[in-house]
C-alpha cells in the first residue's frame, strides 16, 4: 500500500486523479488487471467505508462484464449489504484477476473516518486481498498514521518534485491568464516570490495569483509580493477582508447556497447551476426574482467577488451562467468559515455554524418553493430555480434541516396541496419518471400524489388529512408506527396525539403518477385511509385501498 500525505492545498487530489488516469491506461486491454477509485469528500458527511467497497465492487464487476450470483442475491434481498458481505463478493471477483489497483483520495474527509481507516488497513493486511494494490491520500493526521505506518510506504507531498511542479504551475498560470498579461514584465519576480513561500501548497499559490489578477494599482505589486500571507488561513482572512461591505451579504449567501447544495440529499453529488444560484441568492436578499431572466446580480459580479472561493465547471461559454456550475473551490474554504480561528479575526462576520447553515438553507429552499409560479413550465431541477426547490423540498425531512417548530410549520405548508405551488409537482414528476439516466426516480418527489380529489361519496376533501398523507409518505412512516412520530405532526392543525390518530383514519383520494408498460405517463388512483395508502412502486399500474 502507498500512503501519500500532505498539508491542505498540496495537490493530493490532483495527484490522485493523475494516478487514476495512468492506472486506466495501464489496465486498458488487459483481461486480468482491473482498477477502481473512490473520492472521499467532506460534503458527503458520512463514514465512507460502505460506499467505498460498494463502488469498488461495482467498478470491478462492470469491467469484468460479470457479477457473481451472490451479488444478485444481495440486490434481490432489497436491503443494504454489510461490509463483510461486499468483501466476500470482491473476494470472488479477485479469483478472475491477477491484480486490482485501487486509488482512495482524501481519507481524512470521511466523517467519521475511524472505520474507513480500519477497513483500508484490514484490506492491506488480509491475505484474501493480496492481489489488491492500494494508493491512499490524506492529511498526515496521527490517527491515520497510527494505522498506516508499518503497513504502507509513506510518501510526503513536501519534496523537491512538488516544488518543481509548483514552478511549472505558476508559469502556466502566468502565461494562460488574460488578466495576468499586464504583469508580463514582472513574471519572474512574481514566480520567484510565490515559489519561495508556497511551502508545497498549490491552493495557496492559486489564491495569490487570483489576488494579483485583480490588483488595480500596478505600483502595489512590489508591496504585495513582499507581504504575502504565510499560510492558507491568513490568505482567507485577506480575501474576505477585501470584499466591500456592501457585497458581504451577497458573498455569504452564495457560499451558503453552494455548501447547502453540496450537502443536499440528492442521489449523486453535483454542483449548483450558476444562473440558478444567482436567482436563489437574489430571492433571499430581495424577496423576489425579476421576470425575464434579468437578475439583480450577473455572472461577472459573481466571479469578481467569489472567484477564489468557488470553482466554475463547464465553462462553455465563459460568460454564460446558465452553462456553468459552481462548487466550493476547496474544502479549506468551509473549514476556515466554520473554524474557531475566524472568530478572532477581522472577518468574523463571515463565521458560520454548519448546523445553522443546514437550517438556513432548508428554510430558503422551502420559502422559494412556496413562491413558485403555479403557471410556470420549468421542470429541469438542475437549471430551473422553482423546480430545484420543489424537488429538494421533498427531501428535506430530517431534523438536520427542520430544527424548530417554525421550520416544521413551513414544511407542512410546503406539503399542503391547497397551496398554488403544488400544481407544479405533476409536470416535474413526469420528467423524473422519464429521466432514468439522471437517477431522478430516486427523488422523494415521486412518493407524493400528483393530484388530490374528494374521496368517493365524501363530497369534499379533508385538507389536513392530505397534508398528513404527504408527510407520512415522504418520511416513510409505516402504518402502526405513526405514534412515534407525533413530535413532527403538531403543525398539522396543532392537534393532540389522539386527534392525529383519528386524522390518519380519515380518507384521502387522488392520483399518483407512474409509467405504463409502454413508458407513458399513467395515473394511478388511490382512495383510502391515510394510514393505509402507499405510494406505488415505479412501474406499478394501480394502487387503491377502500
Automatic annotation (TrEMBL):
It holds the Pfam family NPHP3_N. Keywords: Repeat. The keyword Translocase does not apply. Gene3D superfamilies: P-loop containing nucleotide triphosphate hydrolases. The keyword Nucleotidyltransferase does not apply. Residues 1-139 form the Nephrocystin 3-like N-terminal domain. InterPro entries: NPHP3-like_N (IPR056884), P-loop_NTPase (IPR027417). Signal peptide: none annotated. It comes from the Eukaryota. This is Nephrocystin 3-like N-terminal domain-containing protein. It comes from Lasiosphaeria ovina. The lineage of its organism: Eukaryota, Fungi, Dikarya, Ascomycota, Pezizomycotina.
Amino acid at each position: 500500500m502507498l500512503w501519500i500525505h500532505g498539508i491542505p492545498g498540496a495537490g493530493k487530489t490532483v495527484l490522485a486523479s493523475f494516478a487514476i488516469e495512468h492506472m486506466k491506461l495501464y489496465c486498458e486491454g488487459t483481461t486480468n488487471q482491473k482498477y477502481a477509485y473512490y473520492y472521499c469528500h467532506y460534503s458527503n458527511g458520512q463514514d465512507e467505508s460502505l460506499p467505498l467497497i460498494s463502488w469498488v465492487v461495482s467498478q470491478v464487476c462492470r469491467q469484468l462484464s460479470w457479477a457473481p450470483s451472490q451479488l444478485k442475491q444481495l440486490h434481490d434481498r432489497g436491503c443494504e449489504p454489510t461490509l463483510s458481505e461486499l468483501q466476500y463478493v470482491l473476494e470472488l471477483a479477485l479469483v478472475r484477476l491477477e491484480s486490482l489497483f485501487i486509488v482512495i483520495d482524501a481519507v481524512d474527509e470521511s466523517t467519521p473516518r475511524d472505520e474507513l481507516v480500519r477497513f483500508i488497513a484490514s484490506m492491506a493486511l488480509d491475505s484474501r486481498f493480496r492481489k489488491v494494490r492500494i494508493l491512499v491520500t490524506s492529511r498526515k493526521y496521527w490517527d491515520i498514521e497510527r494505522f498506516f505506518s508499518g503497513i504502507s510506504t509513506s510518501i510526503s507531498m513536501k519534496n523537491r518534485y512538488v516544488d518543481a511542479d509548483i514552478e511549472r504551475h505558476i508559469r502556466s498560470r502566468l502565461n494562460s491568464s488574460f488578466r495576468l498579461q499586464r504583469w508580463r514584465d514582472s513574471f519572474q519576480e512574481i514566480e520567484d516570490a510565490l515559489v519561495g513561500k508556497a511551502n508545497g501548497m498549490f491552493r495557496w499559490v492559486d489564491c495569490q495569483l487570483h489576488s494579483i489578477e485583480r490588483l488595480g494599482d500596478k505600483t502595489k505589486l512590489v508591496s504585495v509580493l513582499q507581504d504575502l500571507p504565510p499560510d492558507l488561513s491568513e490568505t482567507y482572512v485577506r480575501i474576505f477582508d477585501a470584499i466591500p461591505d456592501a457585497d458581504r451579504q451577497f458573498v455569504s449567501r452564495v457560499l451558503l447556497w453552494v455548501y447547502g447544495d453540496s450537502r443536499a440529499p440528492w442521489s449523486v453529488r453535483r454542483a449548483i447551476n450558476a444562473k440558478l444560484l444567482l436567482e436563489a441568492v437574489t430571492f433571499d436578499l430581495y424577496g423576489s426574482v425579476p421576470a425575464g431572466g434579468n437578475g439583480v446580480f450577473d455572472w461577472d459580479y459573481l466571479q469578481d467577488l467569489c472567484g477564489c472561493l468557488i470553482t466554475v465547471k463547464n465553462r462553455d461559454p465563459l460568460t454564460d451562467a446558465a452553462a456553468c456550475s459552481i462548487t466550493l473551490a476547496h474544502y479549506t474554504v468551509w473549514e476556515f468559515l466554520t473554524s474557531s480561528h475566524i472568530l478572532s479575526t477581522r472577518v468574523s462576520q463571515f463565521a458560520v455554524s454548519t448546523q445553522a447553515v443546514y437550517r438556513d438553507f432548508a428554510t430558503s429552499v422551502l420559502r422559494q418553493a412556496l413562491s413558485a409560479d403555479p403557471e410556470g413550465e420549468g421542470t429541469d431541477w438542475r437549471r430551473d430555480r422553482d423546480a430545484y426547490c420543489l424537488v429538494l423540498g421533498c427531501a428535506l425531512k430530517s431534523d438536520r434541516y427542520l430544527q424548530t417548530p417554525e421550520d416544521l410549520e413551513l414544511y407542512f405548508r410546503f406539503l399542503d396541496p391547497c397551496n398554488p405551488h403544488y400544481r407544479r409537482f405533476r409536470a416535474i414528476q413526469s420528467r423524473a419518471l422519464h429521466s432514468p439516466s439522471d437517477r431522478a426516480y430516486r427523488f422523494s418527489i415521486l412518493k407524493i400524489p400528483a393530484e388530490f380529489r374528494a374521496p368517493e361519496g365524501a363530497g369534499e376533501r379533508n385538507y389536513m388529512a392530505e397534508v398528513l398523507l404527504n408527510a407520512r409518505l415522504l418520511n416513510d412512516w409505516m402504518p402502526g408506527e405513526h405514534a412515534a412520530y407525533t413530535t413532527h405532526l403538531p403543525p398539522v392543525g396543532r392537534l393532540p396525539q389522539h386527534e392525529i390518530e383519528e386524522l390518519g383514519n380519515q380518507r384521502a383520494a387522488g392520483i399518483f403518477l407512474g409509467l405504463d408498460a409502454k413508458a407513458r405517463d399513467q395515473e394511478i388512483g388511490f382512495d383510502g385511509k391515510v394510514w393505509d395508502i402507499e405510494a406505488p412502486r415505479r412501474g406499478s399500474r394501480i394502487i387503491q385501498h377502500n
